[in-house]
Amino acid sequence: MSKIQRALISVSKKDGLVDFAKGLHEMGIEILSTGGTAKLLKDNGIEVIQVSDHTGFPEIMDGRVKTLHPLIHGGILGIRDNEKHIKEMKKHGIKPIDMVVVNLYPFEETVSKKDVTLDDAIENIDIGGPSMLRSSAKNFQDVAVVVDPDDYEEILAEIKESEGAVSYDTKMRLSVKAFKHTSRYDSLISKYLEQKVKGEGFPSLLNLQFEKVTDLRYGENPHQNAAFYENTGLNKGALSKAKQLHGKELSYNNILDLNAALELVREFDKTAAVIIKHTNPCGAALGEPLASAYKKARDTDPLSAFGGIIGLNRVVDEETAKEIASTFIEAVIAPDYDDSALAILKEKKNIRLLKLKSFIARQENEYDLRSVCGGLLLQDKDSITLIEENLKVVTNRQPKDMEWAALRFAWKVAKHVKSNAIIYATDTETVGIGAGQMSRVDSSRLAAMKANKPLQGTVMASDAFFPFRDSVDEAAKVGITAIIQPGGSVKDEEVIAAANEHNIAIVFTGIRHFRH
Fold first, then answer.
1. What CATH code is assigned to 239-355?
2. 201 — alpha (psi -120 to 50), left (phi > 0) or beta?
3. Domain-wise residue ranges, the chain
4. Quick one: which of 6, 105, 132, 269 has the most CB atoms within 10 Å?
5. pTM exceeds 0.85
6. Of the listed 278, 322, 348, 491, which one is catalytic?
7. Along the chain (516 residues), what's the average pLDDT of each consecutive run of 10 residues?
8. Which of 95, 138, 180, 346 is catalytic?
9. How many Å apart are CA 299 and CA 452, to the nearest integer?
10. Catalytic residue check, 138
11. Domain 388-508: which topology?
């Protein structure tokens, strides 16, 4: 292994840099640097050679061009055991650079600011940095490339133990890390700029970047391996940003259900509680205080709520915590927890408690992804809400004010129930939920069968149109007074006639909410 004789250091993130550079300097390693990095090192008593002095060419164009020079890239890319390369390096006065310590302009941090301009974003696209990283990562047999401050201590220790060298295995591992670093960086840039291009539709080449959050114990079943990844550049409302305060580690199924709970509960501005089982709501309700909303949601289907996942859009207080603790619950996600609530819930050893301060809606440019054999399906998120001016009453009877409120509530819940979805509800709580049946009429019957409270006077929401009148007839049997559905069936006239026979009001939305 050849010794590290010369290192080029130019970083945006300066955590731990001074100690690392001091360690290199104490071992007699010459340090090249630029700009703010060079100033920091000099201010801390570390001898530094400016890259412009090394190349004999000044930084130009406001620093856009400073390391893009043959003396830099030749020093990085020259293969040390290639006789031709060595001769050319000597001929042109190119000194080997054995270590490159670089991390890139803060593009991600810049574009996450609310008031960022396109010009600001462009100026934070690093050019020289990725070029040096790719050059050194390509020539990893001879060059150690360092992008992560967390690696400083380990690398410094290895250099000291090996009398100035870094092993082949370490350099190869660092090379992989560097390529991942530049790949992620390019993805962030292309994703940001793509948002600025209007009318392009879905990209012809889909470039996705996900970072691993954690390994999971197993997947849906114990024989399946699994891990949790987060999409890069997400807003603070992403599930991956939640902080676990208590309980066992999350499972694959927990995360799926927590996501379903989060997606549904943030549909509501009023105080709301939802309970999820196997990605389907088994209860949802509005109410003040929060404990009241939770109890109503639980009472929709107490049997299914056992072992469920709870989503709450308000800070969990003591009264709500007592209600949650009164039965077995797998996990809770909420904006926060009172100290008294935490004390109560932490008495339950295994319950997972997640805190997600930001319950803001998803970003507009988010996609739904679904893998299939050999490919990927991509679609916009189903983020559309009711368009009031498009609501159309198609029956003889108009809904009453209370029915309108109930229809709007039920429609929000139906959007998050697996098709074929039927919801029976009041204006503040679900009463019966029929999910995932192969025929809509079976979902109508199932919702009635699952009801734990009287159905008389409640409303019905259907995620898609009725192919026949049978679901309306089933609704009439249990006392449903109004229905909200997309409309658009060839049997609409038959369905409307059935509703008029039963004195049921029907509202067409023109919007379908299939959830496969």
1. 3.40.140.20
2. left
3. 6-196, 239-355, 388-508
4. 132
5. no
6. 278
7. 86 88 89 88 89 80 80 89 89 91 83 81 84 92 91 90 87 93 85 70 77 92 94 76 93 96 95 97 97 97 96 97 96 97 95 89 70 91 87 96 97 96 97 95 96 96 96 97 96 96 97 92
8. 138
9. 7
10. yes
11. Cytidine Deaminase; domain 2 (3.40.140)
